[in-house]
Description:
By secondary structure, this protein is of the alpha+beta class. The chain has helices at residues 8-21, 53-65, 100-109, 113-123, 125-134, 167-178, 185-195, 258-274, 276-283, and strands at residues 4-5, 24-31, 36-40, 46-47, 74-76, 97-99, 141-142, 163-165, 213-221, 224-232, 238-246. The longest helix is centred in the C-terminal third of the chain and has 17 residues, at 258-274.
Amino acid sequence: MAAIRNDPTLLETVQRIERTSGGRLSIAACDLDYRRSFERHADRKCATASVIKLPILLHTLLMAERGALSLDERVTLEAGDAAPGSGVLKDLSPGVTMSLRDACVLMIVVSDNTATNLVLDRVGIDAVNKTMDELRCPNTRLFRKVFSSGPPINPANARYGLGVTTPRETLRLLRGLYQGRIGSPSLCAEALAILKRQHYRDGLPRFLPESWTFAGKGGAVDHVRNDVGIVCTPGGGAIAIAAFCSALPRSQWTPENPGLIALAEVGRAVARRFRPDEVEAESS
């Protein structure tokens, strides 16, 4: 099949989804055998919310592979470490210890903010950003720890909150993971195994067939809902999607948030256009 870029039918569908959500969609997606791709505002800088935890994970795994740290190192939850928001560590008693690997798992699968900060205490914010430069993602930046009370970030970046990225750069990370090109193939396999354990599935995978797998990371803050990941079909197909929905008219912390519904509809629309035969087979 010849390569197809920016299918007009898919574009029309995405525009309708965007209008219904009341927000602003920025998307980059590709069939990972390069048959099809789709972009809409793929170079727009977007507030990451917890999607920035994917770059933190990749940096930490790379440092372990290079011998700069061990994923078996123990990290300890100290009094004052608890960060509000998502996660479970904030509800545990000080003194709990875990491996750095387990902190990374919590950071991804339940988006644990406290675990994220424990990981960052070990690896450092600037180091994460240097790794993003190395991976050709110069617009992907982590600005601070989660709910940090430290010095204010650069005013020019304040509107992005925790971090910033673009759909195109996030898609580059996802493609590199799938192709085994971020560090070693075994590192990529470990990262994907963690991402497949994701608990939050109200975004991109929400309306996909149950037999399809999803390895990804979402993010939410106020009027922003994001989801990025790799969808794999039983027939061996794979689709990478990075979708960011911003400027939502209201902050609604339920599964029916218009931004989450928009992301779910984007996932379904991309699947139908990129893998129509497999979608039809699942529904028959």
